[in-house]
Amino acid sequence: MAARAEDIATPNIDELFRPTHDERARQSFVSMLRKHAIIDLRAAVRRHYESEVAPALSARGAAPATWRDIERVMEPDPLHRLYSTLRYNAQEMCYLSVQPAIERALPEMIDLARDLATHNPAGGTLRLNPQFEIPRYLHALDVHLAPGWVTAEHTEDDVAQGAVVGFGGKVFTGQHPYRKRPGVVAESIAHWIQRTRPGFTPRRILDLGTTAGKNLLPYKSAFPQSEAHGIDCGAPVLRYGHALAEHEGIVVHFSQQNAERTDFPDGHFDLIVSSFFLHEIPLKATRNVLRECHRLLSPGGLMVHMELPDASSVSEYDNFFWNWDTHNNNEPFYTNYREQDPLRLCEEAGFLPADAFKLTIPDAASFGEERYARFLKGELAAPPHGSGGWFIFGAERRG
């Protein structure tokens, strides 16, 4: 049974992050700047393209046919260059804005995480491997422009990257209307599972690329009887996530593992999930991960990945927008991943074609139950991915 958070005397590791007045002001400014770029300027660029650029090209008989054509036309466009510049710099500043407060708190954070890892008051576990080989595709890139991403270690028992990614992510999404608190992806997927598969009660859940577990913990609320596991290649984020879960009294088992090949036995999990993960690794690794999911799923088990929509599921202009990250956000595998058919990837991994699915589901926190019921009946479409909806794909394992 999970311990109650109020029975655990230690502070929450997040509470040790205490920015000054000026630091908070800086973070608010950065959050608003990124919101202006990714929402307001993004919409302005699209209007500009649809009302001026595309008609002018069509009149000359040179209408773009693919997203790459659109990219060639728009990259030198002054409005797009402004949008791109602001978006890139705001992205970097999200993480830079939280670093001073994290550096001040780091010794205390490390002591707290070390103590919780020793005593495990909630009953969870943290399993790290000092000889673990971090894949080059992780340690060679500051993914999302986050310095050090999830693997960099600056001192013994370090948790800095857990804090940088966590608090930088809060600045990153702070003004987005559909991401105001952590775990909304997991809440939305769990809600969809409960509404479409009543009676589904997973014994064990595995979250791939869990970082600090923010999109794992909500599954414990949805399926309290389940045993929750989160794996990641980065030790600092796992230490941080373990400290968070232990303080909250939530039993989670974190382990440092590569999702391409884990040490769990065959058929060990009834539900395997991930969030914003597969597009950040090479396509060869993605295929390995999906094969590993097939091995790890029990008969009747379910795999659900929240991911970027594949290229065939959106317009060519949307493909132009999404693939910006390939060149500008340290995500070089982005475009290659999106060009794949998720259903075909599931089939290649061993799942039956009839058991695979891809769709966009509503954000459970913002869509409303009456509209959700209409969505389930097919009367109402989910909002687009990233604007109130989440693109998911996966498969069931029948046998």
Q: What is the overall pLDDT average?
A: 94
Query: What order do the SSEs take from the amino end to the carboxyl end, as H and E?
Result: HHHHEHHHEHEHEEHEHHHHEHHE
Helix content: 40-55%
Low-pLDDT windows of residues: 1-8, 175-180
What does this structure look like?
Helix 10 (283-296) links the parallel strand 5 and strand 6. An eight-stranded mixed sheet has the order 1-4-3-2-5-6-8-7, sandwiched between helices. The protein contains 16 helices and eight strands. The chain is 47% helix and 13% strand. The relative contact order is 0.12. Mean pLDDT is 94; it is low at 1-8 and 175-180. It has helices spanning 21-59, 67-74, 78-96, 99-119, 136-139, 160-173, 184-196, 217-222, 235-248, 283-296, 316-322, 324-328, 334-338, 342-348, 364-367, 369-376; strands at residues 125-127, 204-208, 227-232, 252-256, 269-275, 297-306, 356-362, 389-396. It is α/β, with parallel strands linked by helices and 399 residues long.
In a few lines, what is going on in this structure?
The chain is of the alpha/beta class.
Task: Describe the secondary-structure layout.
Blueprint: H1 21-59, H2 67-74, H3 78-96, H4 99-119, E1 125-127, H5 136-139, H6 160-173, H7 184-196, E2 204-208, H8 217-222, E3 227-232, H9 235-248, E4 252-256, E5 269-275, H10 283-296, E6 297-306, H11 316-322, H12 324-328, H13 334-338, H14 342-348, E7 356-362, H15 364-367, H16 369-376, E8 389-396
Parallel strand pairs: 1-4, 2-3, 2-5, 3-4, 5-6
Antiparallel strand pairs: 6-8, 7-8
Helix pairs in contact: 1-3, 2-11, 3-6, 4-6, 4-9, 6-9
